[in-house]
Amino acid sequence: MIYSLRGTLIHRSPGVVVVECGGVGYQCTTSMMSIRDLPDIGSEVKLYTYMAVREDAVDLFGFTTTEERECFKMLTSVSGVGAKAGTAILSEFTPEQVAVCIASEDPKSLTKAAGVGNKLAQRIVLELKDKMKKLNAGSAAVKLPGSSAAAAQFGNVKNALDALAVLGYDSSEIMPIISKFDSSLKVEELIHMTLVELGKSKGA
């Protein structure tokens, strides 16, 4: 399995990039979000990859962040969601925005992506929300204040933890970081700040 590619960007077109590594050009299908993040042709790039092996083909997908790759893998794990729909969603939304749609049970927003209708969007939210519950059930329990008023105040933290589960993070890993932030912040802000802090700790 190819985890990542680092090399020279030699081609870029809607939905496709080619990275040359050691004289070999690797064609990767990707989202418009990742394409917009890439530098000019001839620059060095790094893509985090996912290889889909089928009976009749081997497809390589590349993304500029691990969060986008994990989100793509989660999306395409849903029945009826193929690579085309997965990349379409990630061309319209950041991984954080997708995660918020799942955590807040908002399938309507996902229909903004090309080729994603109401039924498919509802299936994505239903299946991934169920996966989040299973992930959290198997990890350390998240304890929020007991009173209804306090629970409402910390509700965004719980939603952010659920959303981060879509991106492959465990609540026991995230809670020490997210608890440092103002719980009244929007869910998307909490997710973004947590990912920034995680990046800093991994880069240290």
Report on this model:
By secondary structure, the chain is of the alpha+beta class. It folds into three domains: 4-63, Beta Barrel (OB fold (Dihydrolipoamide Acetyltransferase, E2P)); 66-130, 5' to 3' exonuclease, C-terminal subdomain (DNA polymerase, domain 1, Orthogonal Bundle), CATH 1.10.150.20; 148-203. 50% of the residues lie in helices and 19% in strands. A hairpin with a 2-residue loop joins strand 1 and strand 2 (16-21). Helix 8 (155-166) crosses helix 9.
Nearest-integer average pLDDT = 84
H-E string: EEEHEEHHHHHHHHH
- Bin the helical content: 40-55%
The CATH topology of the largest domain: DNA polymerase, domain 1
In terms of per-residue confidence, which ranges show pLDDT below 50 for 5 or more consecutive residues? 138-153
Can you count the beta strands? 5
Highlighted features:
single chain; 204 residues; alpha+beta; OB fold (Dihydrolipoamide Acetyltransferase, E2P); 3 domains; 5-stranded antiparallel sheet; 10 helices
Question: Topology of this protein?
Answer:
Blueprint: E1 4-13, E2 16-21, E3 24-29, H1 32-37, E4 44-53, E5 58-63, H2 66-76, H3 83-92, H4 95-103, H5 107-110, H6 118-137, H7 148-153, H8 155-166, H9 171-178, H10 187-203
Antiparallel strand pairs: 1-2, 1-4, 2-3, 4-5
Short note summarizing the structure:
The protein has ten helices and five strands. It has 204 residues and is of the alpha+beta class. It has a five-stranded antiparallel beta sheet with strand order 3-2-1-4-5, covered by helices on one side.
